[in-house]
Specification:
The complex is a heterodimer of chains A (about 525) and B (about 260). By secondary structure, chain A is an alpha+beta fold. Chain A is about 55% helix and about 15% strand. In chain B, helix 8 (about 150-165) links the parallel strand 6 (about 140-145) and strand 7. The longest helix of chain B is centred in the last third of the chain and has 17 residues, at about 230-245. The two termini of chain B are about 25 Å apart. Classes of the chains: A alpha+beta (about 525), B alpha/beta (about 260). The structure holds adenosine-5'-diphosphate and magnesium ion (MG).
Chain lengths: ~525, ~260
């Protein structure tokens, strides 16, 4: 049985300002409807109900992108999803948001959202209260021919705001022409306007739900070089601000991932462009960001293990043998996360963030590099780092030490980050070309590195588990099998690498880099 | 989808009253219910405030050129729809006669509705005609209101014989007492004896009550405006019995 929680696009919506003056919206609505529909139709209240909705999505809006609207109706213990106007319901009890879809009981709704939500938690982005009065519209025989659902709604979270009233016209079977007459009369004699916007879209586009983003200028070619760099760094800082609470609350693993990307970008910019900042600033700050990188590494490494574990398990002969390993990693991860949360709540972190913010604001207020523009800086540094990549790549042979491969990987990463910083100044086609060259190369280098790191880590875990007396021989054997697979991955990557130097970093790639930014 | 007929070849015995209230009860339990008012006089249609008119009338409907679904009207009650009466139903016999296998036409017409409805209730005109035969053949259960008189008991037995002799599919037949007046001795006697003698007669009796007559004034089912009245309660029992006889699956009550 459907609950008759209807989210159909209403045929008409009404601007909130029109009903604001009235303290009793239902009575005001009835007066308006009666005036518009008399004498042909009589209008009476048939029933009313209040619906409380918790609107859910991942923090990066994945469900919305997949065309899914999701809400929890706590009073009815129900999850409701709407896809292409079709409503699906599922009973749920005792859920606390945020929650991972994979941790929620399977059912019609959860099955719909699991894939698009990916590994991201479902988070309330709004709460609303919808107060719907249903009016019966009767013809001269007293027969109900149309129902009008008038919804006065409020946003209750994250702010208290009245939402424009919505008016839905329900045509009863066999009374389509009466519904059309009602619609025409309302359009003609009231301030109601047609709308096809869904309830969810109405809520999503409320000004109160717009994210508060730090003010940034965006890079321009003739900005002072230090101004442009500080502005980019402020962008990364905003990313730290946006993710830190999610890490502390341990909402999902992507907060930490995004945080670490921002830290790494900051570190790369400090290293490659820090010299344009006021003397000493980059030197003082770099160790602090290095600390942030280090303090976040253990949790992230363990996250990666856990995220991959199911896939990994599928590749060994006896997947169940890895369950002891999984439990061990989970335990380690929980304690690493606690340590991490402590670090991110520490004075050291808040001091770092606040003094960094103040220092960057100071650069923006008083830029001093009048003689060097952002595009000057871009041309110079992009060429420099590209040359570094070429040089390191040339050094590598089929049997050179893996250190050299890692050096190349680092240089390539620097190039990628640098390009992202200067992207607003780049020629779009050239940018695409260079990124394409680098993407393949980096994937290959990543394979190489992962193979090595994972194999080493597995050895390490195996030793620890044996020492802690936590494991039997089968588990160690299964882990050995995995470790072997990683080593094979590393070997394969190196072979491809030596064969394709010229393709990735040769003359054609250099020509693309030349066209990236015009002076 | 189950089809129930409210049938008696006599008029004024409570067929329409029962059809309207039982259809309402079915819908209130969450079953998608259709009431087809086959009586050209349109008493049931009137009770739901619907205009007694079907475009194209019986010729188009019975002839199959107008889909039944197009002619259906929502009532004011959730899950309850109505196929209205039309004056042309007076000649439905003739229209049926023009169809192949005329006695089974109604059943054929109803079958596409099974995707939309769980229960179809037929309110029938008082006659023994081709329409009645169609009704008997289309139904899973035939409910027969009996006014406790010797004569009506005899006609019920005639109907039972007729139904028994139908070739092929036979509906279940169930008589019950209508307009029972407990102050009358004869009513009391028949009520006490007949269900003992005839297994097809229920001991449920709808009492004669002025509240029932109010239906035509208020134009609503009795159960909708006076659920606690003894007659409404009796219709509740009768509906429960129908559910049992038809083995209808559990339904979820309507939310309002
Ligand atoms: N139980 C009852 N008590 C009092 N009046 C009744 C009762 N049942 C039916 N009536 C009235 O008797 C008349 C005929 O009933 P109706 O249901 O229309 O019979 P039918 O459909 O068999 O012709 C109607 O006026 C109705 O209101
Ligand atoms: Mg009748």
């Amino acid at each position: 049985m459907p609950l008759h929680v209807s989210f159909d696009p209403p045929i008409l919506t009404l601007d909130a300002s029109d009903t604001e003056s009235s303290t009793t919206p239902a009575a005001a609505a009835q007066d308006l409807l009666r005036a518009a529909l008399a004498p042909r139709f009589a209008v009476d209240v048939e029933r009313s109900r209040v619906e409380v909705l918790t609107h859910l999505d991942t923090v990066d809006g994945r469900l919305h992108q997949a065309g899914i609207d999701l809400a929890h109706l706590p009073r009815r213990r129900r999850l409701v999803a709407i896809v292409a106007g079709v409503q699906t319901d599922q009973q749920v009890t005792g859920v606390r948001w945020p929650a991972l879809a994979t941790d929620l009981p399977a059912g019609a709704v959860i099955d719909l959202v699991r894939k698009p939500a990916w590994i991201r938690a479902l988070i309330p982005y709004a709460s609303t209260e919808a107060d719907t009065t249903t009016f019966a519209v009767r013809n001269s025989d007293g027969k109900i021919v149309v129902r009008i659902h008038w919804t006065a709604a409020f946003l209750t979270q994250p702010a208290s705001v009245r939402i424009a009233a919505r008016v839905g016209i329900e045509a009863l079977r066999g009374y389509r022409s009466e519904a059309d007459q009602v619609r025409a009369a309302l359009l003609e004699t009231t301030s109601l306007v047609p709308s096809v916007e869904s309830w969810f879209d109405t809520v999503r586009t409320l000004p109160a739900l717009r994210p508060k983003v730090a003010e940034r200028f965006g890079m321009q070619p003739d900005q002072a070089a230090d101004f442009a760099v500080a502005d980019a760094l402020l962008g990364y800082l905003a990313e730290l601000d946006a993710t830190v609470d999610g890490i502390i609350a341990d909402i999902d693993t992507e907060y930490l991932h995004d945080f670490r990307v921002a830290v790494r970008r900051t570190r790369t910019v400090l290293k490659l462009l820090g010299d344009v900042l006021p003397p000493g600033l980059a030197g003082r700050t770099a160790p602090e960001f290095r600390w942030l990188g280090d303090v976040t590494t253990p949790t992230r490494d363990l996250d990666v293990y856990l995220l991959e574990l199911d896939d990994l398990a599928a590749t060994v002969t006896h997947p169940d043998d890895l369950s002891a390993f999984g439990a061990y990693v989970r335990e380690r991860r929980a304690s690493a996360q606690r340590e991490l949360a402590k670090a991110l709540k520490s004075k050291r972190y808040t001091d770092l963030v606040e003094s960094w913010r103040a220092a960057l604001a100071e650069v923006i207020a008083h830029p001093s590099h009048a003689e060097q523009t952002a595009s000057d800086l871009a041309v110079e540094r992009l060429h420099k780092v590209f040359a570094k990549c070429q040089k390191r790549s040339r050094k590598i042979t089929a049997d050179s030490h893996s250190e050299l491969v890692h050096d190349l990987r680092k240089a390539c990463k620097e190039m990628r980050y640098l390009m992202e910083v200067f992207k607003p100044l780049c020629d779009k086609r050239a940018y695409k070309n260079v990124i394409a060259d680098f993407k393949e190369l980096q994937d290959l280098l990543g394979e190489f590195q992962d193979g090595e790191v994972q194999a080493a880590a597995l050895r390490q875990f195996a030793h620890e588990m044996v020492q802690a007396g936590k494991v039997d021989a089968n588990a160690i054997l299964a882990m050995g099998e995995l470790s072997g697979k990683f080593e094979a991955r590393q070997r394969a990557a190196r072979e491809t690498l030596t064969e394709h130097h010229e393709n990735y970093l040769g003359r054609k790639a250099a020509a693309h880099v030349d066209r990236l930014v015009r002076k | 989808m189950k089809v129930i007929a409210s049938y008696n070849l006599k008029g004024g015995v409570g067929k329409t009253t029962a059809a309207v209230n039982l259809a309402y009860l079915s819908a209130r339990q969450g079953r998608r219910t259709l009431l087809w008012d086959l009586d050209p006089q349109g008493a049931a249609t009137y009770l739901f405030r619907v205009k007694p008119r079907v475009k194209g009338g019986s010729p188009k409907l019975v002839g199959g050129s107008r889909p039944m679904l197009d002619a259906i009207k929502a009532t004011d009650f959730e899950h309850l729809d109505l196929l209205p009466a039309d004056f042309t139903y007076r000649h439905m016999d003739i229209d049926l006669n023009e169809r192949p296998k005329p006695q089974r036409t109604l059943r054929r017409l109803l079958s596409p509705l099974s995707a939309e409805f769980d229960v179809v209730m037929l309110d029938t005109p008082p006659s023994l005609s081709l329409v009645s035969e169609n009704v008997l053949r289309a139904s899973d259960l035939v409910l027969v209101p009996l006014i406790p008189t010797v004569l009506s008991v005899r006609t019920f037995e005639q109907l039972a014989t007729f139904t028994r002799e139908l070739k092929g599919r036979k509906p279940k037949l169930r008589g019950y007492f209508s307009m029972l007046d407990r102050r009358r001795k004869l009513h009391q006697e028949i009520l006490a004896e007949l269900p003992q003698e005839n297994r097809q007669v229920s001991s449920i009796a709808i009492p004669s009550a002025s509240a029932v007559e109010q239906m035509t004034v208020r134009r609503e089912p009795l159960v909708a405006f006076s659920a606690k009245s003894p007659a409404a309660q009796a219709f509740g029992q009768l509906w429960d019995e129908a559910v049992r006889l038809l083995d209808l699956p559990e339904a979820t009550p309507s939310s309002n």
